[in-house]
Amino acid sequence: MNTFEVRQPEDDRARSAPNPSHPTPSPASSYNGRALTDHEASRVLRLVAQGIDILDRKLTQSPNLFIKPSMGGHELEYVLMDSLGRPSPSARGLIAAHEELKAELSAFNLETDSSPLPVNEDFLSAFTKQLGEKFDYVLDIAQQDGSRAAVVGILPGYTLADFGRENFINTRYRNLDAAIKALAPSPPHRITLDGPEGITAQGESLLFEAMNTSLQLHLSVTPDEMVEMYNTVQAITAPVLAACTNSSIVLGKKCWMESRIPIWKQATLPEQVPFGVKWITDPIEPLRELVHFHPILMDTETVYGEASDSPQMQEARALKALALQNGVVWRWNRICFSADEGVEHIRIENRTLPAGPTTLDMAANAALFYGLTYGFQREDIKPHKVLAFDDVKSNFYHSARLGLDADLTWYNQDGNPITIGAKELTLELLDVADRGLTHLGIPKTERDFYLREILQKRIENEATGAHWMNRSLDSLEQKGISREEALQTIAHEMQHRQTTPSTKWKGYAAPVHTWEML
């Protein structure tokens, strides 16, 4: 495997606020994208600053508003494909006909959201049930439209031709594309990845990023818990990701085990995709930093609302601008908020995990994430107390690149830094995750099912979705099958296996570690 570094920024420090001398972007292109003018960008930042002040005041003066039982949930992105394993741009019609579906970047992606679930003894079973029901729903309506839905970090058979501007799902993303082009110092949307084969490719738009599909995990906590919880999530992100890779083939080439990570960073504006620069010390610290990032999206009503609006309406506009800005600074672990009366909460969104390969695999990944997040709250030594933040950030990129073969910086029982293989570390951390799930009251049979029967076997056998795709590609080509046909076969078989129920696995599809290679 190659060892040179993928090109990425030296650090994740935010771009400075708009420069008044920055030229006004050119008029809208033929596909209706439009960047913010300098005046609009400055106005958005003023509103963002006001929103931070308002949120800070709410947390200081009325903290009990944000103290509610912890809730968990997810967002899941799907790719629509045809019978040949190629993307099918049929999302517009499906979204128009089914309000439960949400748009993503492209006409071949969909998203569904879960209902928040109490993080208690029933959480994992309810989480799995929701995942399965959402996937079944999307499968059914896609099939009625002549498509097939799949859950995978990156569809193996994508080609450059799939990412033409005609496949943007709506104007929102065209505007984001225009803003990125206006800010980028050189032509954006170019990806360079190493790996067993590696690839360099130039996309024509932000749509290039649409090859990524993910499972995003949510956890709402109280303001008093946020600092410890968020720092823990930052620390565990690398080992969790190493055990869950499912995005190893990019435009037909074997690249990083979780290639979504460098693609998102390179296909957008790298500085808008930060992991962070330090451990946080107050519950909304990452939100305070949003004023240092260039606005690249706006809502006209928010920006140009009447100055004579009531104080309540002005406050709502400022908070909406803050949420809008937070939505286009794509932190891998993001702090989000709701300040609407009656539903006030702050939550962590983990955005690092790929979609797929099956419902049970994703539920097991969630068990590891939530188990470690709660488990480390009760450990004598906490990761963020002994690990350097730069090491944790490096761990993240190493895990994305090499998966279970990565060497990570961790610590021994005395709290001293050590270097340990991701495979060994994730196996050790299963005990911490088990203690975290035990604290939540989750029954031993469920803990053992997700952590031991699925995750432990997946890790021990080095059998993630990424491993299955790479090994199957090698096997098919050794049988004399062309690369193009092999990629189509992998996509077809992946989708078939993730949608075929198994009585042995509680009526869900068999998890990926049981799949035979092709």
Quick summary:
The strands form 4 sheets. Strands 1, 2, 3, 4, 5, 8, 11 and 12 form an 8-stranded antiparallel beta sheet that branches. A two-stranded antiparallel ribbon has the order 6-7. A two-stranded antiparallel ribbon has the order 9-10.
The CA-CA distance between the termini, in Å, is: 22 Å
Based on CA atoms alone, the radius of gyration comes out at 22 Å
Give the helices and strands as they follow along the chain. Answer: HEHEEEHEHEEEHEEHHHHEEHHHEEHHHH
Low-pLDDT residue spans: 1-30
Provide the structure class: alpha+beta
Which term fits the overall shape? globular
Describe the sheet with the most strands.
8 strands, antiparallel
- Count, helices: 16
Mean pLDDT across residues: 91
**How many strand segments?**
14
Query: How much of the polypeptide forms β-strand, as a percent range?
Result: 5-15%
Report on this structure:
With 518 residues, the chain is an alpha+beta fold. The protein contains 16 helices and 14 strands. The chain has helices at residues 38-61, 91-97, 123-144, 171-183, 223-242, 260-267, 285-288, 300-303, 311-327, 359-375, 383-386, 389-402, 422-439, 444-460, 465-478, 483-498, and strands at residues 71-81, 102-103, 109-113, 117-118, 148-150, 190-193, 199-202, 214-221, 249-250, 253-254, 333-338, 345-354, 407-411, 417-421. Strands 1, 2, 3, 4, 5, 8, 11 and 12 form an 8-stranded antiparallel beta sheet that branches. A two-stranded antiparallel ribbon has the order 6-7. It has a two-stranded antiparallel sheet with strand order 9-10. A hairpin with a 2-residue loop joins strand 9 (249-250) and strand 10. Helix 10 packs across helix 13 and helix 15 (465-478) crosses helix 16. The chain is globular. The two termini are 22 Å apart. 51% of the residues are buried. The model is unreliable at 1-30 (pLDDT under 50).
